[in-house]
Each structure stands twice: as C-alpha cells, then as structure tokens.
Amino acid sequence: MAGIEKIISSIKSSAETKAAGIISEAEAKAAELIEQTKKECLVYSVEENAKSDKKIELAVKRYNAQNEQAAKLIFLNARQSMIESTISKALESIEKAPAEEYFDMLLKLIEKSSGKGNGELYMSQADINRLPAGFEASAAKIAAAKGGTLKIAGASQDIKSGFILKYGQIEENCTFKALFEENHDKLQDIVNSILWS
Length: 197
Fold this sequence. Notes:
With 197 residues, the chain is of the alpha+beta class.
C-alpha cells in the first residue's frame, strides 16, 4: 500500500504543478483576449462615434462574454487533458513499479478474480521472465483457498502488464490496460477530486 500511496502522491504533486501552469496559461490567454477586445472596442467607438453609447456598451459586454466563454473552454480542455495525462501516468507507474510491488498487485488481482475450477494464467513474456520465486505457488494457494487451481499457462503478446485468467472457455481480462479502460469514469472522478478538491 505504501507504494500505491507514493504513486498517488507523485501523481498528485505532478498534477498540481501542471494544474497551476495550465490555470496560469488560461488566465494569461483570457487577459490577452480581454486586452485585445478593449482595443477593438476603442477603435470601434472612435469609428462609430456617431452611434449611441448604448450600442458601444452592448458590444463591450458581448466581447467580454465571448472572452469569458473562450477562457472557460480553454480551462476545461486543459483540465480534461490533465486528467487523461494523470490516468495515463498512473498506468505507466504501475507497469514500471518495482518487481516486488508489481507482483504483489498481481497477487491481489488474482485473489479478487480467481474462483473455482482449473484456472490458467496468461501473462506477458517480460513478466514471466521476471517472476519472483514463489509467485506461482502463492497464486496456486490463493486459488486453492477458493476451491480451484491456478497455473501459469504461458505468455501472450497481447498483454503488456497484468494477466488474462482463463477457466475453460471463460476469460477474464485482468490486464492493467483493460482494468483502467473498464474503470475510466471512476478514475476520472478520483483524479478530478484529487486535483481540484
């Protein structure tokens, strides 16, 4: 859990720094747009001196409203981009976690996903090559506690991280990419609350 807290802390720190930069950039762009609008309004008022002050006031309000809308849109797009970047970096952090931490996460996934029956575990060749001693025995013990068996059946090129668990014709995709995609909305909410709470 300490590793996950470090990842979340690192992600939060990086996200806060990026958020400050994006907000500052959005404010600068908004200020630039407002300044440009003021200049345009000044030119407009000089050229249209014969028209009433009421029309000029309405034009200024309209330009300011457009600028506010543009600034909000810039900020919302930047915010969404930050959220997606943070989620992507979280997945990358998990995939690059130290072996002990990474395989502990896999065992927790196995505990959550395994069931009765004869299970087969498919992993990436890179993960199979770096399996810690006792991992397969630990996975088998978890499966046995649930009334099943579990063995590492082989490698799959379709897997980068995580695993696919197969019971006969039934497959459960427990790759980290699939888990992140499946829980994308929840992850967006979590990252949003971390960045802007």
